[in-house]
Amino acid sequence: MTDFGMDKALKHLGLQDINNGTSTGQENFSYGEIIASYSPVDGRLIGKVKASTKEDYEKVMETATKAFLSFRDIPAPQRGEVVRQFGNKLREKKEALGKLVSYEMGKSYQEGLGEVQEMIDICDFAVGLSRQLNGQTIPSERPGHVMREQWHPIGVVGIISAFNFPVAVWAWNTALAWICGDVCVWKASEKTPLCAVACQNIIAEVLKQNNLPEGISCIINGDYKVGEMMTNDARIPLVSATGSTRMGRIVGTTVAKRFGKSLLELGGNNAIIITPSADLKVVVPGAVFGAVGTCGQRCTSTRRLIIHESVYDKVKEAIVGAYQQIKIGNPLNENNHVGPLIDKESVNTYLAAIEKAKDEGGAILVEGGVLEGEGYESGCYVKPAIIEAENHFEIVQHETFAPILYLMKYTGELENAIEKQNGVVQGLSSSIMTNELKEAEKFLSYAGSDCGIANVNIGTSGAEIGGAFGGEKETGGGRESGSDAWKVYMRRQTNTINYSDELPLAQGIKFDL
Ligand code: UN1
Questions:
Q1: Mind listing the domains of the chain with CATH numbers?
Q2: Is the pLDDT of residue 289 over 90?
């Protein structure tokens, strides 16, 4: 294949020697088992990293714990300055890192660039926030007393991230954690280990230039067994985990058992409600990008369209028509809309879901299938499918991380659509397409969508970093990124200060000696 400048990009990211496993960004550590990273784009081996052993993990924790003690001494705005420099480095490496994300994960180059842009944006957000980690003063019920609330760094933050956003989700967590005075240990997905090494190389350079300890940012490599070292480790007060509901259930309960905090960002089963007044010009790109963008592998991907019966045929025709225009192929080629799935296992899950939908009575509107032949040699390229289905089908209730879109009808009032939209166990993202103010507001009200994200006249994916990101129910309840999500990376302390000469007790209690 044309290499789309990949070799140059790898070099720019310090990954030229990655095949011998030396460019780990943490040269002092020795590693065990080898993890090979193959690109789903062309099946080529990109590089190898060594999985962390228990011994390596202990060394990482020692370095991180020690780094925390000095990092928390640095005033927050100065920590913000470090994050500002990190954001600038990302600006320099945007094309190279965007390309690696596209090549190792399989999303389009445009989406790879978009992901790096999210990293840059969260850095800018965090820099401003570094002067706004404000507590409150609270009136005391006692004379000569004052109460206040302070936010202190929490310690070592463990980050477990998924393959689908191999760099941005780490940055959402680290940029905030760092300005809060925490240090981070990151276990990236074993499917995208080189993206993690590339990020580690970038931040390691910034830390070095600022004479800061390398333990402020650490990576550990490997599968869930490596993640388990963190979830069981009482030295890690907060574990932030992004991935499947199955994984989150294990992480959440393990961390809770030792009274740690967890921030869970798990599966979605996101729907768009399409009402009679919806504008097709908005509906079609919103729904199609939502369903096929990142090859249906975002947790915010659109899985279900709930369409009013009066416009059902019209909407169906428009969406099916748009699917005929989708170009599937090498995601580094900017003419293509959709790249491959992450691996063959994922292809099998996709195929099995289509079969299951058919078995349950679903009608195929756009046929799926695996692509073969020139350009598709990796075996990971699939056709986005559309299936007419019912909300109660077991397969519809389940999140399949692939481009399968289910269409269903609602009749009568909006409440019927909302009932279907909320009638799944997940609660991440949702949207309504309407030009009726009353419908939009109803959907956003307490009686409307039960998701963490509820949009009007845009799709379910592509949230901006400025808002809190996350969802309810089996999505896990955590919030990352913007708004006041920073608070989870800090511990709250309530202070009562007595500046009088007396000691009156609260609640009017008399205790005379
Ligand atoms: C994810 O899929 O885990 O809202 C994150 C979006 C992106 C983030 C998705 N900004 O689609």
A1: 6-266+476-492 (3.40.605.10), 270-463 (3.40.309.10)
A2: yes
